[in-house]
Amino acid sequence: MIPVFTPHSLSDLWAALAQAPGAMVYAGGTDLLVKRRAGLLAPPALIHLERIDELRGVEERGEWLRLGAACTHTELLAEALVQTQVPVLVAALRVLGSPLVRNMGTLGGNLCTASPAGDTLPPLYALNAEVELLTPAESHRMPLRQFITGPGQTALPPGAILGSVWVPKPSGWTVQHFEKVGLRNALACSVVSLAALLQVNGSGVTERAALAWGSVGPTVMVCPEAERCLIGRHLSLPLLREAAAKAQQAVSPIVDGRADAEYRRTVAGNLLLRLSELV
Ligand SMILES: Cc1cc2nc3c(=O)[nH]c(=O)nc-3n(C[C@H](O)[C@H](O)[C@H](O)COP(=O)(O)OP(=O)(O)OC[C@H]3O[C@@H](n4cnc5c(N)ncnc54)[C@H](O)[C@@H]3O)c2cc1C
């Protein structure tokens, strides 16, 4: 048995980390405890973040929404602010794992796992979210796009934790869309996913676009060429086919047991075509 600490505040957390150097933090444990059981990790001690109030809750702060890193996916789904402001994130949370995984797993855990298939990542990339990192000495914000540095890798410094996720309050988006293609409907990691935000004016012309794909590269992929292709033009199926071709050139899918690269490239483009049905 290794020691497990359950701090009730950030100051208790820093004390626990000082007492147990090399300890790993966890929230829901749906990634970390699974890896530990499989023998992939052997931390000398564990620190559970679940009881720390400072890491929980959803609130509006000026032009931003602050989402506590230790909020579970189920808690976020139940939040009126999340439902009304960021339906693109809600759509991703709804298809993340099973009800049990959503009850245990947290937003912070999903981001710190930094899987290219992590479902909350594409919406938060498209929304230009920031993460707030905490140490005993300071808090520091950085764009999520810089925080995730590779598959399973983040810019989290040793001894720091992810405290919260800051989302600019979306304004003007007429479409917030997330779609995930998996090998089955439930409990499947994405083979390809797409988060898309569009601002389309009354004449059907796209004024702004933000697109982010999951599972088609070492991290979430964005494609500014595809976004630029849509802007200032009438949103139509032929235009989306043009943008899809640019996205298919830009992505660099991996091959794993779930799908080959060519299939992922094709689906990455095809997911864009769906946007024609939504405007
Ligand atoms: C059966 C099953 C199905 C799944 N399906 C999906 C799916 O469809 N889509 C998907 O995206 N994921 C899926 N997952 C993966 C997992 O459930 C999610 O990534 C979940 O959000 C992880 O959150 P957690 O709180 O359980 O993370 P934990 O396991 O607690 O932690 C994961 C990692 O993050 C670190 N960490 C956690 N919180 C913090 C913090 N605040 N600060 C610093 N580091 C932190 C931990 O040290 C660890 O390295 C699935 C997992 C299982 C077991």
TrEMBL record:
<dbReference type="InterPro" id="IPR005107">
    <property type="entry name" value="CO_DH_flav_C"/>
</dbReference>
<dbReference type="Pfam" id="PF03450">
    <property type="entry name" value="CO_deh_flav_C"/>
</dbReference>
<dbReference type="InterPro" id="IPR016166">
    <property type="entry name" value="FAD-bd_PCMH"/>
</dbReference>
<dbReference type="InterPro" id="IPR051312">
    <property type="entry name" value="Diverse_Substr_Oxidored"/>
</dbReference>
<keyword id="KW-0274">FAD</keyword>
<dbReference type="InterPro" id="IPR036318">
    <property type="entry name" value="FAD-bd_PCMH-like_sf"/>
</dbReference>
<protein>
    <submittedName>
        <fullName>Molybdopterin dehydrogenase</fullName>
    </submittedName>
</protein>
<dbReference type="Pfam" id="PF00941">
    <property type="entry name" value="FAD_binding_5"/>
</dbReference>
<dbReference type="InterPro" id="IPR016169">
    <property type="entry name" value="FAD-bd_PCMH_sub2"/>
</dbReference>
<dbReference type="InterPro" id="IPR016167">
    <property type="entry name" value="FAD-bd_PCMH_sub1"/>
</dbReference>
<keyword id="KW-0614">Plasmid</keyword>
<dbReference type="GO" id="GO:0071949">
    <property type="term" value="F:FAD binding"/>
</dbReference>
<dbReference type="InterPro" id="IPR002346">
    <property type="entry name" value="Mopterin_DH_FAD-bd"/>
</dbReference>
<feature type="domain" description="FAD-binding PCMH-type">
    <location>
        <begin position="1"/>
        <end position="172"/>
    </location>
</feature>
<keyword id="KW-0285">Flavoprotein</keyword>
<dbReference type="InterPro" id="IPR036683">
    <property type="entry name" value="CO_DH_flav_C_dom_sf"/>
</dbReference>
<dbReference type="GO" id="GO:0016491">
    <property type="term" value="F:oxidoreductase activity"/>
</dbReference>
<keyword id="KW-0560">Oxidoreductase</keyword>
